[in-house]
Write a structure and sequence with these properties.
rod-shaped; 108 residues; 0% strand
């Protein structure tokens, strides 16, 4: 082993000793920082889930409104298309004899 290698070995040994001596304090600080980071991530996750649920509900509401408006528009346009095509809606069936007599009777 030459002089340079011996110096690097001693430097590494000293760094290891200092690191070993400081490790309990560093570990405690790392645990606290890690715990705070995890708590912050859990809070952010909860907020994201709440926001996603609100967005999902809003999208469902908009979709329901759009479907309703579409059905109203379709109901409004279908009779117009039938009239344009010359297809009259079917006539109601003629009333039966007792119903016709009941309709012709004077009220009272």
């Amino acid at each position: 082993m030459n002089r340079r290698d011996l110096g690097l070995f001693l430097l590494g040994l000293g760094a290891g000793a200092v690191g070993g001596a400081l490790w309990p304090a560093v570990r405690k600080g790392l645990r606290a920082a890690l715990r705070r980071g995890i708590v912050a991530m859990l809070i952010a996750s909860e907020r994201a889930q709440t926001l996603a649920a609100e967005v999902r509900e809003e999208v469902d509401n908009v979709l329901a409104e759009a479907r309703y408006e579409f059905s109203q528009e379709l109901a409004r346009r279908v009779p117009v298309r039938e009239a344009e095509a010359g297809d009259a809606p079917p006539a109601p069936p003629p009333p039966s004899a007792p119903e016709a007599q009941a309709q012709n009777r004077p009220p009272g």
